[in-house]
Amino acid sequence: MLSMKQIQMVDLQGQYHKIKDQIDQSILEVIESSAYINGPEVKLFQEELEKYLGVKHVIPCANGTDALQIAMMGLGLEQGDEVITADFTFAATVEVIALLKLTPVLVDVEMDSFNMDIDALKKAITPKTKAIVPVHLFGQCANMEAILEVAKEHNLYVIEDTAQAIGADYKFSDGATKKAGTIGNVGTTSFFPSKNLGCYGDGGAIFTNDDKLAHTLRGIVNHGMYTRYYHDVIGVNSRLDSIQAAILRIKLPYLDEYCDARRKAAAYYNDAFSVSDKITIPITSDFTTHVFHQYTLKLHRVNRDALHKHLLENNIPCAIYYPVPLHAQKAYADKRYNESDFVVTNQLVTSVISLPMHTEFEEDQLKFITETVLSFVNK
Questions:
Q1: What is the pLDDT of residues 7-17, one digit of tens each?
Q2: Could you tell me if 330 and 209 lie in one domain?
């Protein structure tokens, strides 16, 4: 009997080998051209991603964190303006708010979707609020229709953090659909290697249908220049390099296939874990598809940290996203926050665990993972 292939949290190597010839050729062509910065591959990827997303403007940049910062700079947010985002997410979202001397305002999330709680959002709005940053966590969209209604009522910008949900579809109540990241005033994403659409280094992009904003953003990413050595706006140095763009051009046509492979793995997990009342499987909201950037369980009457250790001892990689909420991080501590405002987040950080999730699973791996989890949970 053949031994099982080693389980990876994200099997980037296996994915690469399936398209190795295409990837290698694309990289060599950039090297031969020596057009490493703002080369033709960047422009072509921009155009192809615009077509895929159905958005007027894609502005490539150096990484997803820069994408968020540049979006906020482009909207003209000023020191002291309040920006509301979710407490249960990676720090990059709040990091850029603080870096720009804006005021982060963190709100609780929904227990089922892990995304921003709309009632908490409404309570957090003050006369100083200028923007909302919904994070499409783990691969499904936040309740954008409700968020847009709140934003319209209070004249607020909406900046989508789509780093974990590129490829997901949002379904409006009238039947219309849009891709994640194309719904608010501006959307951002990361092409970090482990993302559903990942390059082989750092990379990111900003999306918008606003022509004027797009023009501003294109200047900001390139030192504020539209003509070389003429600086019209204050900018940064944040460019997607040509090699990464070439890699992304090869991978973009596979994105829907990659998302389907993740859904197939998630369906296997769901079926296996549905027998246990100690496990809550990921819930997909009615208004969105799920691209399963992460597959995250909620545990009940189970020692999460002991399960984490048990899985690692059995050579099953796993992760805790996220062990400490943002409001409890030293860098973002604020006397305004009350623990009573973060009931759900405080519960999630002690009960969630994320299992391996990628495009290259073999059934014996999924069987081993689920059986190992269930044997621990049911003992």
A1: 999 999 999 99
A2: no
Taking 90 as the threshold, does the pLDDT of residue 287 lie above it?
A: yes
User: CA-to-CA distance for 56 and 67, rounded, in angstroms?
Assistant: 17
Q: How far apart are the first and last CA of the chain?
A: 29
Structure tokens at 331: 């860098």
- Distances in Å between the Cα of 247 and the Cα atoms of 197, 253, 310, 319 are 10, 11, 37, 27
Please determine, for residue 183, whether its predicted confidence score (pLDDT) is greater than 80. yes
Residues 161 and 199 both lie in one domain: yes
> In terms of domains, do 284 and 372 share one?
yes
Per-residue pLDDT band at 379 (split at 50, 70, 90): confident
pTM of the model: 0.97
Structure tokens that stand for 64 in this block: 């997803």
- Using CA atoms in the order 271, 318, 92, 181, what is the torsion angle rounded to 10 degrees? -30
DSSP state of 177: E
234 pLDDT higher than 80: yes
Boundary of a domain, candidates 253, 275, 301: 253
